[in-house]
Design goal:
The structure holds 2 protein chains of 2 kinds. By secondary structure, chain A is mainly α. Chain A has one domain (39-44, 65-296): MetI-like (MetI-like fold), CATH 1.10.3720. Helices cover 72% and strands 0% of the residues of chain A. Classes of the chains: A mainly alpha, B alpha/beta.
Chain lengths: 300, 247
């Protein structure tokens, strides 16, 4: 029996095999979608760059020589150098770490928070629902960047605070999705059956409702990653995100603004980085939706 | 002692009274049929007994112990339910194994690796289905999983809400035979809700005919078979059922 047959068998012999088989099917379906593959590759490159930044960077991201300031792209400085003579390529490579950390932290805070608030709200209904959804609506009604700005202004500038601010502004969307999904099956018979066995509300929500909401939230989070990167870059651009000399992409664009007419590469190169990575997450999110979302006729 | 005893039961959904003044005694080991047209409140009675329809007045007691309105674990272990639609009553993302182990986990009972295959065997499920998802099973197989899940806690009472009406005719017979065998082997007490009178005469000892939330008549299955039920509505129901069969 080949590994492939073992993974795809209709009658798995153990829990492990069943789980691996399912992941393999999702993976195969994802690989059949060219855009998703491109997206996944871009993100893979981002992750590799971030993890092995010292290997890919040709210069130090912080130290520059002033005699080399504002050099155009060339063999010495692949993407040019900035106003302090620092290599832009190296700064972008190190900046990938910051971007990745921001994106992962925001996803790790906002997605579970939104899922749990939404599922509780949808499952219990009544007053719980009204109160939780009222709070959600308050957060939803404010523009993301403005709210994030307010939080950062209150907490003080810096990456950690930017992460907290972005997370606080992005959970309501997930809460809404999770609530809507929960409502569609909270009265279904399989939930009634599990309640009849004496399962506590916490158990029903955590073990039976959340797994059903999670695929739509995962899709939404992946699609939102681009927005998170842009918000982080926006905060950086306004000087409220990562502080100098950290090579955050938004902050780099902000520094390059002064030279945009004569030395276009200073602002453009980190801009490209933001666009490419955002596109990568969007492609992957679209692909995931095709594979995971039962409503769009996925073959799962 | 009566397995189930209902006294002056009024059940409502919101402001609507669905079942009114219902009293019934069902002996241990008996299979009792509740028949009636849709909307007669027969499924609601089952939901009240299990705790899914908590809005009731009167008394529900199982083996002499009165139960509260909410679902609780002692009664869950005593009395379980099989739903009508096997396509909707299994969690779509959980394997058969997970579905069957869950009741054991909830009640803190160990030995799932031994008890799940045993129960699958008792319900006529091939061991190779153990790690499949519901969408890889047929309707009949799913209903067997649902029955197995209901029996995992070794309940004494099984409430059956039209357990065969969503299935193919050929599969219906298999499930009915399974239910008959399980009852004999495990000494179960059944309440079977259905609008299908042949199912009642195959499986049940006694039946009650319900109409608009009230019991019209309680009769033995012999009375159904020999067509000697007394209430006019019961006769009407029997007649409708036979004309439908011959048509």
């Amino acid at each position: 029996m080949t590994t492939r047959e073992w993974l795809l068998t209709e009658s798995p012999a153990s829990r492990m095999q069943a789980r691996l088989g399912r992941s393999y099917r999702v993976f195969m379906a994802l690989m059949r979608n060219p855009l998703a593959v491109i997206g996944a590759l871009i993100i893979l490159v981002l992750v590799v760059l971030a993890v092995f930044a010292p290997f890919f960077a040709t210069h130090s991201p912080y130290a520059g020589t002033l005699t080399d300031r504002l050099q155009p792209p060339g063999p010495e400085f692949w993407l040019g150098s900035d106003e302090l003579g620092r290599d832009i390529w190296s700064r972008i490579v190190y900046g990938a770490r910051i971007t990745l950390v921001i994106v992962l932290l925001v996803a790790a805070i906002a997605a579970p928070l939104g899922l749990i608030v939404g599922a509780i709200s949808g499952y219990f209904g009544g007053w719980t629902d009204r109160i939780l959804m009222g709070i959600t609506d308050v957060f939803l009604s404010m523009p993301k960047l403005i709210l994030a700005l307010a939080f950062v202004a209150a907490l003080g500038p810096g990456i950690e605070n930017a992460v907290i601010a972005i997370a606080i502004t992005s959970w309501p969307a997930y809460a809404r999705i999770a609530r809507a999904e929960t409502l569609t099956f909270r009265n279904s018979e399989f939930i009634a059956a599990i309640r009849l066995q004496g399962a506590s509300a916490a158990r029903v929500i955590l073990r039976h409702i959340l797994p059903l909401c999670s695929s739509s939230v995962i899709i939404r989070v992946t699609l939102d990653m681009a927005g998170i990167i842009l918000t982080a870059a926006g905060l950086g651009f306004l000087g409220l995100g990562a502080q100098p000399p950290l090579p955050e992409w938004g902050a780099m664009i902000s520094r390059g603004r002064a030279f945009i007419l004569d030395q276009w590469w200073v602002a453009t190169m980190p801009g490209f980085a933001i666009v490419i990575v955002s596109l990568g997450f969007c492609f992957l999110g679209d692909g995931l939706r095709d594979v995971l979302d039962p409503k769009s006729g996925g073959k799962q | 002692m009566n397995a189930i005893s209902l006294r002056n039961l009024d059940i409502s959904y919101g402001d609507t009274l669905v079942v009114e003044g219902l009293s019934l005694d069902i002996a241990e080991g008996e299979c009792f049929g509740l028949v009636g047209e849709s909307g007669s409140g027969k499924s609601t009675v089952l939901r009240a007994i299990t705790g899914l329809a908590p809005d009731w007045e009167g008394e529900i007691s199982l083996f002499g112990k009165a139960r509260g309105k909410r679902i609780d674990r002692t009664f869950a272990a005593l009395c379980q339910m099989v739903f009508q639609d096997p396509y909707g009553s299994l969690h779509p993302r959980q394997t058969v194994d997970a579905t069957l182990s869950e009741p054991l986990t909830i009640h803190g009972i160990g030995g799932a690796d031994q008890r799940v295959p045993e129960m699958m065997d008792a319900c006529g499920l091939d061991p190779k289905f153990r790690f499949r998802l519901p969408h890889q099973l047929s309707g009949g197989q799913r209903q067997r999983v649902a029955i197995a899940r209901a029996l995992m806690l070794k309940p004494k009472i099984l409430l059956l809400d039209e357990p065969t009406s969503a299935l193919d005719v050929s599969v219906q017979a298999e499930i009915l035979n399974l239910l008959k065998r399980l009852r004999r082997e495990q000494g179960l007490t059944y309440i079977l809700v259905t609008h299908d009178l042949p199912v009642v005469s195959f499986l049940c000892d006694r039946l009650a005919v319900m109409r608009q939330g009230r019991i019209v008549e309680v009769a033995t299955v012999d009375a159904l078979k020999t067509n000697t039920m007394t209430a006019p509505y019961s006769r009407e129901l029997v007649e409708k059922s036979t004309t439908r069969l011959s048509a």
